[in-house]
Amino acid sequence: MIRVALLGATGSIGQSTLDVIRRNNEQYEVFAVSGHQRLTQLLSICQEFNPSLACVPESAAAEFQQQLRVVGCTTEVLCGTAGLEQLAAGSQVDVVVAAIVGAAGLLPTLAAVKAGKRILLANKEALVMSGALFMEAVERHGATLLPIDSEHNAIFQCLPVDFSRRSFVEQGIEKLLLTASGGPFRGWQREALLSVTPEQAVAHPNWSMGRKISVDSATLMNKGLELIEACWLFNVQPEAIQVVVHPQSIIHSMVSYRDGSVLAQLGNPDMRTPIAHALAWPERIHAGVKPLDLMSSAALTFEQADETAFPCLNLAREAFRLGGTAPATLNAANEVAVEAFLERRIRFTQIAEVIDRVLNLSKIRPANDLQLLLSEDRLARQLAQQVIGQFH
Ligand code: NDP
Ligand code: MG
Fold it and tell me: Which of 130, 231, 247, 343 has the fewest Cβ atoms within 10 Å of its own Cβ atom?
């Protein structure tokens, strides 16, 4: 039995992961789970899977333990960030699925890295914030990092089997083609974007996801974060990554080789495919995903991203080029701005403005210390709130 710790079990990736495990329950055991606000859902997860451990916020721990007792669950409750770190690093855990959204996932994901676990990474913000530190720790502690972000998982599947992060060029790889759906506002001009609502922004045409990443997809910040994610995962510079808008989301990304070959990974847009791939790698298991029917699928089309109407992609590229703490600052400002947009405190187009201003106001420092990164994250959040306050 492979024992899985699922951080962010109540979210969209969490649910997809549970579904894959449900279909393969002779091989995988849900050993530990975490939730934040949707604790009723976490309780039913505990009833179904009876994990050994569950982590909830400190303020909810006593009541949650009581509720577990009432329904006859023997799950032990841990709490807070320390509890999440304990879940991720526990000696009985074989695989950690990092599916908490945003910076809140950084410390637990790093704890899994430092414990040398096999990590299925959905929480791209953790890697964006702390790229160099994160990848160094992966190396030092012998952790296995497998991407479940669909594009990165596709690239991983299209790379040579014995791919080495050190010799991208020697392996004949010229370029990574990172696909993007373009989100719900593909083709819209800036003027039209001024008045879009949170409801419109979270209605993604192809994928069903949590609210934050749905807004990121609409602004193209998701692609920006993914560009940074790919730079760290595959050890390349942004110049070696071409963003390709592919509205049907059937091709999930590609690798272009020196000899003219372009390898692509295709499938219906369903996160259970990359999750199942990474869970079982290098084997293959059932994911419950409908096979792709090419005869009835729409024509596959490709276009360039509109970086004028959607400036977030370039803001991310620039933050990566600036290096040091800049990506952590970008990420923090984005999280605050997205929340403000969802609460209707700012316009959709102001998300990019907040990030741009916060980046301009921030001093970039070398990102070689975790405490420093965390304090930059806090500072950028304060700055973002101040900038938002000035909009009124
Ligand atoms: P959701 O919003 O659906 O889920 C987020 C999860 O994180 C929930 O379990 C939530 O708990 C938990 N959480 C939220 N805030 C905190 C906190 N402060 N402390 C601890 N836990 C917290 O998001 P998604 O599942 O869509 O996304 C998760 C991650 O995966 C993100 O980083 C996203 O970018 C990435 N990803 C998602 C994809 C998708 O298709 N959904 C695709 C590729 C990457 P609760 O719900 O109980 O409040
Ligand atoms: Mg993705």
Answer: 343
